[in-house]
Amino acid sequence: MKIDAHQHFWKLDRGDYDWLTPDLAPIFRDFLPDDLAPLLKANGVDGTIVVQAAETEAETEYLLSLTDQYDWILGVVGWVDMEAPHAVQSIERLAQHSRLVGLRPMIQSIPEDDWMLKREILPAIEAMQAHNLTFDALVLPKHLVHLKTFLERHPNLTTVVDHCAKPEIRNNLFQPWADEIAVIAAFSNVFCKISGLATEASHDWDITDLAPYIHHVQTMFGPDRTMFGSDWPVVNLASDYSQWNSAFESVLADISQTDQRSFSARAAIKAYPRLREVKSS
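Below the sequence we write its predicted structure tokens.
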């Protein structure tokens, strides 16, 4: 089995996506399950985890409704306002749907670099743990020092680093990102998605630009805590689904395709405990 652990859907007339503007022409249209299904088949992907792209509970509910129609959407990483007085109630309500597997605050866009350390979000974090939900960390390199403290405070919270923490590939900045991501990888409850790297590289990127970053993450986290993610359709800003999948496979050519499929699915199922419940039901 092969799982794409990170992709998105959106429907523009929902009005959820303030960040999605006409200047992002390659992705400024609806992207829905029927658009993705043939790409999954062509690339040997059996199921996906869809991740929020809007800071609204309504979008999370919309994504959960899609899982009722498409059984290959295995789980949803949604969003709630973790600082809101009703955060715990929102988490409890959304978690009633079995395919909610995690939550993702959009940390990369929050002005305070140390937002994840605020006391105000502690009730939401506790509610996530009570409902076996995973914390997706959408962070940049500047956040990694704070993420380390966050992980020390929450040793029982399963956490996933999205997009390898978005290293500055276009500027050839391997350090200090490499050392900092190694520190994060030392926490056994943390996983990492190899996703979103093409959009962090220069427009004329090739596989040699990405390979050092992919190899480093795979080495630090190991196959049981490393996941494949397409970041579709955002990937279309710098690549496409098949090109990114081929790049991922070529960098890890020393690992058989069978093992690649196995570790990608195995890691995703470990990273999202509620996914195991869906798979066994």
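The first helix runs from residue 33 to 42.
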